[in-house]
Write a structure and sequence with these properties.
Protein name: Fe2OG dioxygenase domain-containing protein
InterPro entries: Oxoglu/Fe-dep_dioxygenase_dom
Largest sheet: 7 strands, antiparallel
CATH topology: Jelly Rolls
Organism: Silvimonas iriomotensis
CATH class: Mainly Beta
CATH architecture: Sandwich
CATH superfamily: B-lactam Antibiotic, Isopenicillin N Synthase, Chain
Length: 126
């Protein structure tokens, strides 16, 4: 049974990893799953692409159990727009954002010049 579960997860990963998919907010961004694991600490990592016109509306990302953390590293900033908005980040600089997406509403303003690329790593602590 455990072997079948692991095999199913591995197959699911292989069919989604390293392929661009539409973001779940339906607001124009794309994401590419890089790596994910459920043990020892559940985590995921994505490359996120925001073409001109993309944005993310204000939202939170609830988890069933624990505290959700996310580290976003801006690899390429657009000429205009594409600003990360979060009232209470844990740490924020021009290129690095560490925050609790389950506890703090966050968003990204509309990209108005060029494109934006972000490496995003998230994990849940029990």
């Amino acid at each position: 049974m455990i072997g079948a579960t692991l095999r199913a997860r591995w197959c699911s990963y292989l069919t989604t990893a390293f392929r661009w998919q539409r973001g779940r907010q339906g607001s124009g961004y794309d994401k590419m799953l890089l790596f994910t694991a459920r043990w020892p600490i559940p985590f995921d990592s994505y490359l996120i692409r925001y073409p001109e016109g993309a944005h993310i509306p204000p939202h939170t990302d609830p988890v069933q159990d624990g505290r959700h953390y996310r580290l976003n590293i801006i690899l390429k900033a657009p000429r205009a727009g594409g600003e990360f908005v979060c009232a209470t980040p844990i740490y924020a600089s021009r290129r690095i954002k560490l925050f609790r997406p389950d506890a703090c509403e966050h968003s990204v303003t509309r990209v108005e010049g060029g494109s934006r690329y972000v490496l995003s790593v998230g994990w849940v602590c029990k």
